[in-house]
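[step 3/7] fold_predict: job queued, chain A
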Amino acid sequence: MSEAPFSSLTMIASTHARFAPERTMAICGERTLSWGAFERGTSRVANALLAMGAGHNVPVALVMGNSLEMLQIMFGIVKAGACMVPVSGLLAPAQLAGMLADSGARILFVSDGNRALVEAAELPDGIRRMAIGFSAEGWIDGAAMLAEADDRDPGVRCRPEDRFNIIYSSGTTGLPKGIVQSHGARTHFAWSNALELGMTRSSVTLATTALYSNGTMFMVLPPLLLGATMVIMEQFSPASALALIEKHRVTHAFMVPTQCIVTLDDPACGQHDLSSLEALLSAGSPLRADTRAAVQDRMTPRLYELYGFSEGFATMLGPDDAPALPGAVGRPVIGFDMKIVGDDDRECARGVIGEIVGSGTGAMAGYHNRPDLDEAIVWRDEQGRAYLRSGDLGFVDDEGFLHIVDRKKDMIISGGFNIFPADIESVVGGHPDVQDVTVIGIPHAKWGETPLALVIPRAGAEAAAILAWANERLAKTQRLADVVFRESFPRNALGKVLKRELRAEWTDRP
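[step 4/7] structure written:
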């Protein structure tokens, strides 16, 4: 053979369809999709795109709501050998236009719920808008086009280094960047997380978050690899998620910490049989200790916590791990390595705080159109091996578990002292009237910066009482300037709080 054989995820999915075509592949609402129907649907998408000239590595975008159609379009793009660019429907029109221009996509699939957003955006010239679920002047009837396309596998073969997708980063500390992930990296993602979470062909996963989000792939790519079944929520609600777990005997579910918090507060919590759960995975940001304990007590003891970043690194803490030092977020996921690096760019000793850097098979190929950022994110060890900088601060304990201290850019420097918001958040979050909390640094004439707590309160809460309670329990250097109530926080698709937007309310003031 001229080159080593490689089975892409779409090739593997085609095998599932040939040998078990009637097996349930996905469930969304009252609709069910078999593996055979998924194979025919993705083939139609792929053949339609190839007829339009969208083949090898060509970016094809979609802004759609969770549905069986979205699932088939996503992987039909990949089956064509094109590069999938899933985009959030929560963006402002200018942001959408900027991402599409950056990606270079000339074909855009849009569901009815996102039509107004797309029509309000100044899209790049020449982009073809494919309507899914509606028809309108100036739009190509995408559903009709796909219905007429050939439903046989087009026979495209991809190499490990070919582009699978461009995922735009969360933008928690800056403007989103296009993260390019290869077929090889996505295949690694599928099998490594399947192994870590104990998935099999009999598994039933629950996707509670948006399909365009990278984190949702924890519940999508491993089932694609294994031939398992996935349940996709059109919109998340705590009561619906709990009911779906019971109804479909879900074995693996993914929730971000915010979803865990609101689920615990929902009256439906405790009213459903969750005994089928073999793994509840939380990722996006670390769980507070009180939330973690409540999830294990009231939802399932089989709680997994993942720390990672989309550029390609992760650790996982499983229910059978028992670190001696509390606050651990796990050891590296299979296929990854990790180091802690100090300000002098040298590797730190165990127990010393520094920047977390990671390396492995699942790492990104690079940032789309940003070679300057590619170099900036790389740290190299003494052997010249490349690691990706996380921008997060942490340390590794004597047992090899990682502990997150905070984001490097979120650290508050007050009167020369380094203050980590996560330490304060863990204290304030322990107050019974606090549903959720985030801490930021705001300007201070004397100290440079001072901590401020923004709190989503429970009914009857008083800000002054929470402030006094927290400051009694915080070190002098950590004490809060104030507690301010909010109804919600600005967040990305995985529930990470966009602290830069919150800080801007104070730093932009005259």
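[step 5/7] annotate
The first helix runs from residue 9 to 19.
The mean pLDDT is 92.
exit 0
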